[in-house]
């Protein structure tokens, strides 16, 4: 349905109609969307429909993309830009979906000028000026623990790339301070690296210690999926992300927990 209704020739694009039953099925697999206020939830749905009209989805390795897969990706991709706007994703059109993790050939030169070639097994990849590549698994998502979200991770990289490269510092709105951002993120990143280097159990996915850009992307995943946890381990980072994304998902998570605790047993 979605593919047939798109217009890729530059004319006015048509927003797809999504049946109520499909919203229910897809959103049931994304419980962290319950942390949004009702008005924000409605805006997210509209933005997801807009993204479906603007971007081209492609299945890799013969993967057939269902409407539910594309809608699930669109909802997660739009969550970080709900209050930033889809213009943050301008300049590229492709979203490539693999049936599971995939391998990317890498070529790296060491300090001695020796080129090393290897295959890197990944769940996603975002290219500056190019497509976003994500994995999708048969269970309707990724085989990941709570707080890990490959779609949010890769689209956070796209936000980071807006001002060139991936350095963990996306373009900030006027009301935010680069100094405050750097202070919060540098302290948290250094603390995580120390945990990883010492062999202690890291409070975030150790992949976040690879680079400040990866720390921002991983922190963004946890911000949306486990916001109360992120606020407890890195409160300054949570505060910066809350100001940047214009959302307070920890409050929504607390509300959902209260509602669950009052349900009759």
UniProtKB/TrEMBL annotation:
Q: Extract the GO molecular function terms from the UniProt entry.
A: aminopeptidase activity; metallopeptidase activity
Q: Which InterPro entries match?
A: MetalloPept_cat_dom_sf, MtfA_fam, MtfA_N
- Recorded superkingdom: Bacteria
Which segments of the protein form a coiled coil according to its record? none
State the GO CC annotations.
cytosol
Q: Protein name, please?
A: Zinc-dependent peptidase
Gene source species? Parazoarcus communis SWub3 = DSM 12120
